[in-house]
Amino acid sequence: MARYTGPKCRYCRAERAKLFLKGSKCLSAKCPMNNPMESGLPGRDPKARAKKPTDYALMLRAKQRLKRIYCMLEKQFKLTFNEASRMGGKTGDNLIALLERRLDNVVFRMHFACSRPQAAQLISHGHIFVNGRRVDIPSYRVKVGDEIEVSAKGKNMLIVKENLLEVGKSGVASWLSVDADNMKGQFNNIPERVEVRELEGVNEQLVVELYSR
């Protein structure tokens, strides 16, 4: 499975926003985004004068931000977009729905993992079951009614137990239900675009326009 292995804070600096690619570590004082003196664009002098972005630059940034939030590389993201464009309805809404149905995203939203990269690692290591069957593919597409559960070995992992404490603090997404005690949950329905509050700063229509050029 191809994946980005470089510094994740570089992505946050490029998008000028916290993408929480390292979970709770993104809140530490070591994160460059928490230090105004070091939070400039990567590879650019922070004192350099910023230019007004072109229309293409705005579309590219929207695409890059959405792709990086879901921790995907370009080829996989483009294939997902192509699938969304073949579906009925709005392509942007279809794209968000397909991204939300990725198993690594669902595991993250159920608080079995503190970030999507950590969720992908749990899945690839065989710690996640879907409807009683082990699934080790992070991009696996979850269906409505599917039950996701942590493996017997995974239930003894301290990191999973600590992550699940977040269920009691902030709850879970409205389209999911989680049984924290038994470390399992269910994907109840495909979310509407307005329900995905994490993406309030993302304009998926710009992504559609970019790929339609």
Task: Provide a compact summary of the structure.
Helices cover 39% and strands 8% of the residues.
Please tell me about this protein's structure.
With 213 residues, the protein is α+β, with helices and mostly antiparallel strands. The protein folds into two domains: 8-99, Ribosomal protein S4/S9, N-terminal domain (Ribosomal Protein S4 Delta 41, Chain A, domain 1); 102-187, RNA-binding S4 domain (Structural Genomics Hypothetical 15.5 Kd Protein In mrcA-pckA Intergenic Region, Chain A, Roll). The protein is 39% helix and 8% strand. It has helices at residues 8-15, 55-69, 74-86, 91-100, 103-109, 116-124, 158-170, 204-211; strands spanning 128-130, 133-134, 147-150, 176-179, 184-187. A five-stranded antiparallel β-sheet has the order 2-1-3-5-4. Strand 4 and strand 5 (184-187) form a beta hairpin. Helix 3 (74-86) crosses helix 4 (91-100), helix 4 (91-100) crosses helix 8 (204-211) and helix 5 crosses helix 6 (116-124). The longest helix has 15 residues, at 55-69. The two termini are 29 Å apart.
List strands and helices in order, with pairings.
Layout: H1 8-15, H2 55-69, H3 74-86, H4 91-100, H5 103-109, H6 116-124, E1 128-130, E2 133-134, E3 147-150, H7 158-170, E4 176-179, E5 184-187, H8 204-211
Antiparallel strand pairs: 1-2, 1-3, 3-5, 4-5
The largest sheet has its strands arranged as: 2-1-3-5-4
Q: Structural class, judged by helices and strands?
A: alpha+beta
Helix/strand order, N-terminal first: HHHHHHEEEHEEH
Q: How many individual β-strands?
A: 5
**Distinct helical segment count:** 8
Average of per-residue pLDDT values: 85
Gyration radius, in Å: 18 Å
CATH architecture of the largest domain: Orthogonal Bundle
- Outline the low-pLDDT stretches: none
Shape from CA axes?
globular
CATH T-level topology of the largest domain: Ribosomal Protein S4 Delta 41, Chain A, domain 1
The largest sheet is:
5 strands, antiparallel
Distance between the termini: 29 Å
How many independent structural domains? 2
